[in-house]
Design a protein that fits this description.
Number of helices: 20
Shape: elongated
Radius of gyration: 43 Å
Largest sheet: 2 strands, antiparallel
Distance between the termini: 87 Å
Number of strands: 2
Order of helices and strands: HHHHHHHHHHHEEHHHHHHHHH
Length: about 525
C-alpha cells in the first residue's frame, strides 16, 4: 500500500513542480485540481456504468410504488416481488451505490499523501523523518496544532534556509529529495486544518487566513449538497417524461404524494453525504477541501455528459416498456371480458332452468355399520374397522367387492371436483382484479385439467351405465328406510363432514364407509 501511495505522491509532486517552475501562483492548489481531473477521466467508464445503473433504478420507482401499495402490509411478499422485478428488468440495486462510493478510498489515499508529503511525495523513510523533526525541535523551532501534521508543517517551512540546513545536516543521505511545498492559495495556508473557533487563530495565522479556512468547508458542503440535488434531478429528468412531471406538480398542490422507501433513502443520502463532507472539512487539512470541491464540480459535468449520452437509449427503452404495459393491459381487459361473458351466460342458464323440476336422484344404498366398534350411541367408538377377533382367531373371508359402493364414492369425487373448480374460479377473479397475468395463465391450465377430468369421469359414468342398464335393480329392490335407518343416517353424516373438511380429509371420509362395511 505504501508503494502505491508513493507512486501517486510522486505523480502529484511532478505536477506541483511543473507549476512551480513556471512561477504560477497557487501551484499546490492547481496541482490538486489537475490531479482530480485526471482521476475523474480515468474513472469515467466506471462512473458511466454506475450512473446508468442508477438511472435504471430510478426508472423503476413507479412500479416499485405500485408493489409497495399492493403488498405494503406484507414486507416479505413485497421484497420477493421487488427481487422478481429486478431480475426481470436485469437491474442490480447495488450497481449505482458501489460506483458512487468509489471516490471514498481515493479520498482517504489522498488524505495520507497530503498529511505526510515527505513520506509519500519525497519518498523519505519514517526513521529519517523522525530524525529531521527532532533536529528542528532541538534547534529551537516549534510546531503548532496536532502532532500528526508536523511533517506537513515541516515541508512548508523548508523555504527557511536555517531550517533547511538543519534538516540537511540531520539526514544528509536524503538531502537531494527535500522539496519546499508552498501551500499558499489566495493568502490561505492549505496545509492548516480549519477550525470552528477560528477567532482563536487570529494571532498565529492572521485574520484573513483564519476566516478563509473556516469558510472553505462550508463552501464545500454547500457545493456537495447542490451536486447531490443536481444528480437526483438529472436521473428523474431522464427517466420521467414532461407529462408525468406536470401531473406530479398538480398532485403536490392538491395533496402530498407518498414517497416510496427508495425515495426516502435517497432523500436521507442527500443530507448525509454533505454533512459527512462537512466533518471531513473540519478534520483534515484545507488541501482536502480543494479536492472535494473540484471533485463535486467535475461530477456535475460528468453527470451532464452521461445524460446526453444515455438519453436516446433510455427513450427507446421507455417506449418498449410502454408497449409492453399496453399489451399486458389489453390481455387483462380481454380476460376480464371473458369472465364477465361467462358469468352472464351462467346467469342466463340459471334463469332458464329456474322452476324446472330436477330429475330425481337415486339414493345411494345403505351402508352396513361395524357393530363391533359401537359403544352406546357412538357408532365408531372403538374404531371404524374394529374387530375383536383380529389377532385371536381366524376371521371369515369377505369379498371386498361386496362392500364398495362405487356410486357413493363417485358422488364424493364429484363434490371434490366441483369445490376445486369453484376455488379455481374465485382465484381467477382475484388474479384478474390484481392484474397478475402469470397467475391467470397458471389458473387457466388448472381449469383445463379440471375440465378434462370432469369429461373423463362423465365418459366413464356413461360407459358404466350402458353396460349395466339391463341389470339395474327395480326401485322395490332398494332397501327401505325402515330396514336400517341408523346406517343411512350415519352414511349421510359422513358426507356432510366431507363438505366441511378440506380436499385431503374429503378423500378419507368418502372412502371410510366402504371400509366399515
Amino acid at each position: 500500500m505504501t508503494q502505491i501511495l508513493q507512486w501517486i505522491g510522486w505523480f502529484l509532486l511532478q505536477i506541483y513542480e511543473f507549476f512551480e517552475s513556471a512561477h504560477i501562483p497557487a501551484a499546490y492548489a492547481l496541482s490538486l485540481v489537475v490531479f482530480t481531473l485526471i482521476v475523474k477521466l480515468v474513472l469515467f467508464p466506471l462512473s458511466y456504468k454506475g450512473k446508468k445503473s442508477m438511472m435504471r433504478m430510478t426508472a423503476l420507482q413507479g412500479r416499485m410504488k405500485q408493489l409497495e401499495a399492493q403488498y405494503g402490509n406484507n414486507r416479505v411478499k413485497y421484497q420477493e416481488e421487488v427481487q422478481k422485478l429486478y431480475q426481470k428488468e436485469n437491474v442490480s440495486p447495488m450497481g449505482g451505490c458501489l460506483w458512487s462510493l468509489l471516490p471514498l478510498p481515493i479520498l482517504m489515499g489522498l488524505y495520507y499523501i497530503i498529511r505526510r508529503p515527505m513520506l509519500y511525495m519525497m519518498s523519505i523513510p519514517n526513521d529519517a523523518i523522525q530524525t529531521a523533526l527532532e533536529a528542528v525541535q532541538n534547534a529551537g523551532f516549534t510546531f503548532s496544532g496536532n502532532v500528526a501534521y508536523q511533517e506537513l508543517q515541516l515541508s512548508g517551512m523548508l523555504n527557511n534556509s536555517e531550517i533547511l540546513s538543519v534538516v540537511q545536516n540531520a539526514i544528509p543521505e536524503y538531502a537531494d529529495k527535500l522539496h519546499y511545498i508552498n501551500f499558499d492559495f489566495l493568502g490561505i495556508n492549505l496545509g492548516e486544518v480549519p477550525k470552528l473557533m477560528f477567532w482563536n487563530s487570529f494571532d498565529t495565522l492572521g485574520v484573513w487566513c483564519a476566516v478563509g479556512l473556516f469558510l472553505i468547508p462550508l463552501a464545500v458542503t454547500a457545493l456537495n449538497f447542490w451536486y447531490t440535488r443536481f444528480s437526483m434531478k438529472t436521473n428523474q429528468s431522464l427517466t420521467v417524461t414532461q407529462e408525468e412531471t406536470k401531473k406530479k406538480k398538480k398532485k403536490k398542490k392538491d395533496e402530498p404524494e407518498k414517497k416510496s422507501s427508495a425515495e426516502r433513502s435517497n432523500q436521507m443520502m442527500m443530507w448525509l453525504m454533505p454533512l459527512m463532507y462537512l466533518w471531513f472539512g473540519y478534520s483534515m487539512p484545507a488541501g482536502m477541501c480543494v479536492y472535494m470541491a473540484v471533485n463535486a464540480l467535475c461530477t456535475v459535468g460528468q453527470d451532464a455528459i452521461c445524460v446526453r449520452m444515455m438519453r436516446k437509449s433510455f427513450l427507446e427503452m421507455q417506449e418498449q416498456q410502454r408497449l409492453k404495459e399496453e399489451q399486458e393491459k389489453a390481455e387483462l381487459a380481454a380476460r376480464k371480458a371473458e369472465i364477465a361473458e361467462r358469468r352472464r351466460l351462467q346467469e342466463e342458464a340459471n334463469k332458464a332452468n329456474k322452476g324446472k323440476k330436477r330429475k330425481k336422484q337415486i339414493k345411494a344404498p345403505q351402508k352396513p355399520v361395524n357393530k363391533a366398534g359401537r359403544i352406546g350411541i357412538r357408532t365408531y367408538a372403538l374404531g371404524r374397522d374394529y374387530d375383536p377377533d383380529r389377532y385371536g382367531g381366524v376371521t371369515p373371508y369377505r369379498d371386498p367387492q361386496e362392500i364398495i359402493d362405487e356410486q357413493a364414492v363417485e358422488e364424493a369425487y364429484k363434490k371434490k371436483r366441483r369445490r376445486k373448480a369453484e376455488a379455481v374460479e374465485q382465484a381467477m377473479e382475484q388474479a384478474v382484479e390484481a392484474g397478475d397475468l402469470e397467475a391467470v395463465k397458471a389458473l387457466e391450465v388448472e381449469q383445463a385439467a379440471l375440465a378434462e377430468a370432469e369429461e373423463a369421469a362423465a365418459e366413464a359414468e356413461r360407459e358404466a351405465g350402458a353396460g349395466t342398464a339391463g341389470a339395474d335393480a327395480p326401485e322395490e329392490s332398494v332397501p327401505a328406510e325402515e330396514d336400517a335407518p341408523l346406517s343411512e343416517q350415519v352414511f349421510e353424516d359422513i358426507f356432510e363432514e366431507t363438505d366441511q373438511a378440506g380436499a385431503e380429509d374429503e378423500d378419507e371420509d368418502s372412502s371410510g364407509p366402504s371400509k366399515d362395511a
